[in-house]
Amino acid sequence: MLIPHLGPTDFVLVWEESLAVLKDGTLEKDKSSHAIQDSHRKWREDFLSRLQAAGIDQEMVILQAKKKISYVLLSAPWSVLCYYAEEISLRVPLQMVTTPNFNWSERMLEKIKILNLMSQDVPSMPPDYYTCQFRTNKLERFLGSENKETFFKTTQRHQVLYEILARTPYGALKRGEVGIERLLSENAFSAAYPLHEVSVVDSQSLSMRQILHQYWARWASWKNYQPLDHIREYYGEKIALYFAWLGFYTGWLLPAAVVGTLVFLFGIWLMVTDVPAREICESKDEFVMCPLCKICSYWNLSSICTTFKAGLLFDNGGTVFFSIFMALWAVTFLEYWKRTSAVLAHRWDCSEFQETEERPRPEFTATAPMTLRNPVTGAEEPYFPKRRRFNRTLTGGMVIIIMVSVVLMFVVAIIVYRVILSIIIYKSHNAFLIFSAGRIASLTGSVLNLLVILMLSRVYIYLAQVLTRWEMHRTQTKYEDMFILKVFIFQFVNFYSSPVYISFFKGRFVGYPGNYYKDSQGYEKVKEGGPTQDAAPWETDYELLLCEGLFDEYLEMVLQFGFITIFVAACPLAPLFALINNWVEVRLDAQKFVCQYRRPVAERAQDIGIWLDILQVITYVAVISNAFLIAFTSDFLPRLYYRHNNDGNLQGYVNFTLGTSPSNFNANNTQCRYRGYRDRNGHFRPEYFHLLACRLAFVIIFEHVVFFIGRLIDFMVPDIPEDVEIKIKREHYMAKEALAENEVRTPVPLSRYLSVNRSINQPINQ
């Protein structure tokens, strides 16, 4: 029997049971799933009884139509909130901070006396406090302690309830039958979620959700600052940090987009004035080009006039400057994001979260085989041997290598498929198919590649989840970091393998006339039905979508960051397209969280986690990638070399880049030209080796210069602003003053936790 629910609803548990109408008109469960439903019913009863024993107030609401839907409304009384607030180190206010918060652009525009069109007055600004960890015996020292109903924030109540739900067993511990997440995966419960705030009719006092919709999620707010403090107040620090990073990244794309557009306009000017382009377009029949494969025909170089000019938009001298600019932009962007992240982490009381405040994961606490004293906090905590974790992590690494190898095998298989299909089409002697052979092979290959990516992504993400759980990481941050690393390595290879092949390998190993290595594929010359208005809030929220975390959101943006840095030499307009996309992305993500997702449990975070390390690695890869792109795929160095040896002009450059076919190329002894630095016998000319030395020297000089300047920027820009360091010291001092008074802090042993929660943690049928 459930106790009547007295306080505000902190959490909702839902499950569904299908009903079938028998001939006599009575309702009875579907007999085919009787055994499964019985086991689920037993798990639910045991789980709810243990929650009741832990002091959680419960109330059940049942709706019955085509199927039976049961809602259990949960709330934590004051005593439970106080105990777990101390257990999971919740922070509570000591004193209000009166210093206003400004971002860098607000300060800059205010100093130069320019109207700030991005600012907006958002109501109900969450107050800022000096805080410290909650202690029950010092309750009277905290602000607002006289009102038990409002002392803990709504998000903190959600955190306490989720902590209890995540560590409560419902079966045998040896089988891992612990926590609400396992019950959800077993479909014993359909959903578990905190409630969204109820909308109010009074326009003078909007709820926090209504404020976020009005001042953040609407398209009309596209030019305004995001209300980050409101987002943090409603969704927690982890989600707020994502939107802070997304907004910061979008703002920094603006100068990159401007410079990229100027480089593109410089390419347009070159289309009109470039000497080699004019030589190609005016050559007519001067340069008869050799067939690009054994079954291809001769063609005139002048036929690619338009294509060559279009290539100048992306391959010109400005591209080198832009590549260096983007490499330094990426380094500077990350350094200033570290500063912004440090400011936000301090403002939101997360500066020391990972080092001292983050508690073990509830699932880890319930299943760890032993305990050990924490050397930092002095508290006795669950422990998993490092050697066993290392062995499991090593095994997981081997699985990752195997999966990455599978991805590369599929990439090679698709390339081979395109070549074979082109050959088959050319040998079919069908004029229409032969004309479209390249398009057919490319289109079908792309579709196959997409299907492979989608299929392998599903398999790999599931495998990564299983491996990461098996590795038994202590904290949620470490767990998520290892999961993200596994999946990102796979997705990096999955998404970037095709662009790398196209940029560096495609069409570069076909040989020369009379000695083709393989048959080439040729050259192309030219919501209704929702709940009713009088539905209860838990029913309305149940109809919303499940928020599955921030992994997909971060992945999308980090992959985009990779494309605009690693391959920026191939497309200077990439930052502009990314900027436009992100302006839309911010509002779309905001609408999803405010209007379409169930409210997620608020999570604390100190920064964006391992994503920052991934961004730094991408920055290093981008420098090397752009160096090789410019050196080996661009005409920049050959043009410089020719200018140096030809009195500074490019007259005759096209002829310089073309080789002449061997005399025995065909029976008619017809000479033709091809792209390459070879003589009539097919041997490389001296210029080829001179250029090769220049290319390698360019790569070394380019990456050394960029890395040196990047290190210099890193040295000159401190990760934590000086004023934030002073505020942190001030807060530490105030916390000691508030909690000292001859207090000798003793660690809470795990035995005390077990004795207080014996009714929760006692295993069933173990």
Quick recap:
The chain contains 27 helices and 15 strands.
3D structure, described in words:
The chain has 766 residues and is an alpha+beta fold. 55% of the residues lie in helices and 9% in strands. The chain is built from 27 helices and 15 strands. Strands 1, 2, 3, 4 and 7 form a five-stranded antiparallel sheet that branches. A two-stranded antiparallel sheet has the order 5-6. A two-stranded antiparallel ribbon has the order 8-9. β10 and β11 form a beta hairpin. α14 (386-426) packs parallel to α17 (476-504), α16 runs antiparallel to α17 (476-504) and α17 packs parallel to α21 (610-633). The two termini are 25 Å apart.
* Oligomeric assembly: single chain
Q: Biggest β-sheet, characterized? A: 5 strands, antiparallel
Number of strands: 15
Low-confidence sequence ranges? 1-6, 21-29, 523-533, 744-766
Helix-and-strand structural type: alpha+beta
Radius of gyration equals 32 Å
Mean pLDDT: 81
Instruction: Tell me the β content.
Output: 5-15%
Helix content: 55-70%
Shape annotation: elongated
Protein name: Anoctamin
Transmembrane segments: 239-269, 318-337, 394-420, 440-463, 483-504, 558-580, 608-632, 688-709
Family: Belongs to the anoctamin family.
Organism: Oncorhynchus kisutch (Coho salmon)
